[in-house]
Amino acid sequence: MVPKAYEAASRGPWKRDHVEQYLPLVKRIAGRLAISLPPHVDEDDIIGYGVFGLLDALERFEAARGWKFETYASIRIRGAMIDGLRTMDWVPHSARQKVKRVQDGFAELEYRLGRAVTAEEVAELLQVEVREIEGILVQAQILTLTSFDETTVDNEGDNSGTPLNLLVDPEAQEAYQVVEKDEQKQILAIAVEKLPDKEKLVVALYYQEELTLKEIAAVMKLSESRISQLHSQAILRLRGRLSRQKKNLF
Hints:
0% strand, Arc Repressor Mutant, subunit A, Rna Polymerase Sigma Factor, Chain: A
């Protein structure tokens, strides 16, 4: 994948040295996405998708609009990686249904008991083996790619309503949109605070400190697969709690 991307770069207006200049950024983003990837996915393929996203960013970037290139390119690179992963389509509909069932199980039990629950307790609720819950958590890893930090950019480079747009032109947002976003952040912060300690630390290191999977594993002295599992479980808890919160509001 990467050599093909280099070949494409050399044929376009941007030479190979431009790709090499920003390749560390591509690898950094790939390293962060690794927390949501099953073990059998080749990181080189992810980097390859990212290089094509970088090329797209180089062609579309307009400095006059006041954006920082690295910020704009990061959105394009990550989007290209996710699009590439989706074409693999290794998460069938039946698996998504199982993930949703486990997510709802966490939400129901935690609402009922008023505390964080274990995979064993969810397994008992759903009347399945714990190993099945653990297997579903592995399947859920890829689904967390579209979690709380995902943003999108349309074909014209616009991304209204996304974090990038708020950074670029915050005054252009309607007041109610800003208030709604602040409320969502507060609800999410409360939900994160209620996570078990290890899951809370993974979320903080990944979303706040922006560490890669390898870096988080080193900090917490756990295997990368265990960090991925903790991240997946945390996201399922948060989605379940936010979903229930939304239902309670309406």
